[in-house]
Write a structure and sequence with these properties.
- Helix 1 (3-52) packs antiparallel against helix 2 (66-80).
- By secondary structure, this protein is of the alpha+beta class.
- The protein has two domains: 21-136 and 181-263, no CATH class; 272-312, no CATH class.
- The strands form three sheets. Strands 3, 4, 5, 6, 7, 8, 9, 10 and 11 form a nine-stranded antiparallel β-sheet that branches.
- The protein has seven helices and 15 strands.
- The protein is globular, with a radius of gyration of 26 Å.
């Protein structure tokens, strides 16, 4: 056989593999592009929702509207997916949203699919808001009701009495309430909030499969893998958290699976300031510390100050 014949035979054999690899490569690029597009749609929708849910009343009093938030979220999503005028397409798209969470200052609300009997006696399934849940933790005869900042309400079962305020102030009155210790408070607070929300999110997503199947969605909805660090960043402020799973984005079965958070920016975080003392040592202080004189650069957390090499001020005990 001539060399040219071998070359032609080689091309005939290898060409299908080259075409297959090219198709797969193009499909991966398309899936990646589609994923980025949906990321933008989802980010826009949750940001719109987080802005619309704030209702300012008299004296700049702020109220949170769950209904305004979720209506804005879905309207934004429908417009971007070009399904605003098609009820069937809107219902199918909504089925890829297994759960929504509104993270409020002193508790959270979960919206997920439920089946119930309507006023006509017919069975109906619909995304509905569940009752708001507090960030609650119980230990050694004390019940702690946390918030997104340092304010806390502690119920003493022995005294049958509530105490409300900052942990260091309540600790003077309740020395046995160990969770109020500086080393424990933030850790228990964040862990309580994260675990409460995560457990309800996981339950809602696991239940969503039977509802999604009725729309012909065969994707197996399952709780996402989210690191503790990501969870902690998602509970820094009042916000709107939405999960979007199972949406087809490629020819080889690729599916979009992500979540997005829009923060309303209503929680004023505690600020800490670092200052050098007379012995050339750096200490970090609370904003209203009586010995603090320089407040030019605020830090959001004690951890940030410690990374800078600063020690806690013995006066304000941050």
């Amino acid at each position: 056989m001539k060399l040219t014949d071998l070359a032609v035979l080689f091309i005939i054999i290898i060409m299908p593999f080259i075409l297959i690899l090219r198709i797969k490569s193009e499909n991966l690029r398309y899936a990646a592009y589609k994923s980025e597009v949906i990321n933008r749609y989802l980010d826009t929708a949750v940001e719109d929702a987080s802005e619309s849910m704030l209702i300012r009343g008299k004296g700049n009093k702020i109220e949170i509207s769950r209904e305004r938030a979720v209506n804005t979220f879905f309207n934004s999503l429908f417009i971007n997916f070009n399904t605003a005028g098609d009820e069937r397409s809107k219902n199918i798209l909504s089925a890829y949203i297994p759960v929504i969470v509104l993270i409020d200052y002193d508790g959270y609300s979960v919206m997920s699919m439920e089946e119930y009997t309507n006023s006509s006696g017919d069975m109906e399934q619909k995304m509905i808001w569940k009752p708001k849940k507090p960030y609650v933790y119980e230990s050694n005869g004390f019940i702690y009701l946390f918030t997104l900042d340092q304010n806390v309400t502690v119920y003493s079962q022995a005294e049958n009495r509530f105490y409300e305020g900052l942990p260091e102030d309540i600790r003077v009155k309740l020395p046995d309430a160990g969770v109020l210790d500086n080393d424990l408070f933030d850790d228990v607070r964040k862990r309580t909030i994260v675990e409460s929300i995560r457990n309800d999110v996981n339950t809602a997503i696991n239940k969503h499969n039977k509802y999604a199947a009725r729309f012909g969605i065969t994707y197996n909805f399952s709780p996402p893998s989210i690191s503790d660090g990501d969870w902690h960043r998602n509970i820094e402020d009042v916000g709107f958290l939405a999960f979007f799973q199972g949406f087809p984005i490629g020819l080889n079965g690729q599916r979009y699976n992500s979540f997005a958070l829009g923060a309303a920016r209503v929680v004023r975080k505690s600020s800490y300031y670092i200052e050098k003392n007379a012995n050339d040592l750096f200490y970090y202080h609370r904003e209203k510390c009586p010995v603090l004189t320089e407040r030019s650069k605020p830090y959001d957390s004690r951890e940030e100050c410690a990374i800078e090499g600063a020690f806690p001020c013995p006066v304000c005990n941050p």
